[in-house]
Amino acid sequence: MIAVGERAGALLETRRLRAGPQEIVLDRPIVVGILNVTPDSFTDGGNFFSPSAAVAHARKLISDGADIIDIGGESTRPGAFPVDAVEEIRRVVPVIAAVRERWPELPISVDTNKAEVAETALHVGATMINDVSAMRLDPLMSRVVAKNDCAIVLMHSRGPVSEMASYEHANYGGDVVGTIVAELASRAKHAEAVGVSPDRIVLDPGLGFSKRPEHSRAILRALDSLIALGYPVMVGPSRKRFVREAMAAGLAAATGIDEPLDAAEFSVAERDAGTLGASVVGLTQGAMLFRVHDVRSHRRALDVAWSVLRA
Q: Which of 36, 60, 104, 251 could disulfide-pair with 41, CB 3.0 to 4.6 Å?
């Protein structure tokens, strides 16, 4: 595994991701801090719903070591309902504008699958679009991204927003890794065809999205197949169900108490500890961007792991 990580790390070490006028040098792990300005996200819904609370949390994420802030106004948690563009703009634009004013050089990503939201966000200071649908759901998104020369994260998922976090479309036949890689390759090819420069494209395997836990584990274990497409890779294991299941299984093995999974409740801090394990695995497999809630621990753990891998 380490040999694969070293090859992938060497491939990406001198690469630069262009995001608007900014360049993000991929010569170390890039930590993307999650800032949800929604009332209903999975573990932090409502905590940063007001612009003042959101900006205060952005300050904490930055002081903890975030390289990029990813601001989202629509939850993709299981059972979430879609938000219209007007409401999503109302949620994210004041926060993006305030963060840009306070940190002029900070790369800011907006987590949206709507072209109207993306264009408005770019106008007030975002430089990256993180589209959980890989530009599937809004045909105008491609035009917005190409026209604005922003970076774009193409995340693998299936179905509409309301079904992405379910198993409704988690059917991959006998080759889950090959299928996910092929579907993302198709989206990257589409992005380039409409004028998006390759050095503005990031791929995300979509851990936990339209995937059962075993599917997420499989693609995380085989990230080198995705790296081979030639684009930087971002992973987002933060607090996902497959992390929780692995923690529960490990606890049962260690204690000899095999309780039903639903009875094994973990605090946010415990889920973040499990997330660290998944992120470090991602790093050894070549991922260079990590979208997480717990920036402080990830900054430290990934930097240590990177120092070992580089040596």
A: 36
DSSP state of 29: P
Do 205 and 172 touch, CB atoms closer than 8 A?
Answer: no
Task: Using the Cα atoms of residue 80, residue 84, residue 85 and residue 86 in order, give the sign of their dihedral.
Answer: negative
Burial letters 268-299, b for 16+ CB under 10 A, else e: eeebbbbbbebbbbbbbbbbbbbbbbbbbbbb
Annotated catalytic residue 102: no
To the question of pTM greater than 0.85 for the whole model, the response is: yes
Q: Is 59 marked active-site?
A: no
Q: Between 213-221 and 176-193, two packed helices, what is the crossing angle to 10 degrees?
A: 70
Tens digits of pLDDT across the chain (311 residues): 334 444 444 444 558 999 999 999 999 999 999 999 987 444 544 445 578 888 999 999 999 999 999 999 998 766 667 789 999 999 999 999 999 999 999 999 999 999 999 999 999 999 999 999 999 999 999 999 999 999 999 999 999 988 998 999 999 999 999 999 999 999 999 999 999 999 999 999 999 999 999 999 999 999 999 999 999 999 999 999 899 888 888 888 888 876 655 545 677 778 899 999 999 999 999 999 999 999 999 999 999 999 999 87
What are the tokens at 193?
A: 């065809």
Measured between alpha carbons, how far is 238 from 280 in angstroms, rounded to an integer?
12
Selected catalytic residue, list 18, 136, 240, 244 = 240
The answer to whether the CB of 249 falls within 8 A of the CB of 260 is no
Exactly one of 18, 136, 187, 291 is catalytic; name it: 291
Collapsing DSSP to helix, strand or coil, 65 comes out as: coil
Task: Give the phi and the psi of residue 156 in degrees, each rounded to 5.
Answer: -75, 130
Residues 33, 295 contacting (CB under 8 angstroms): yes
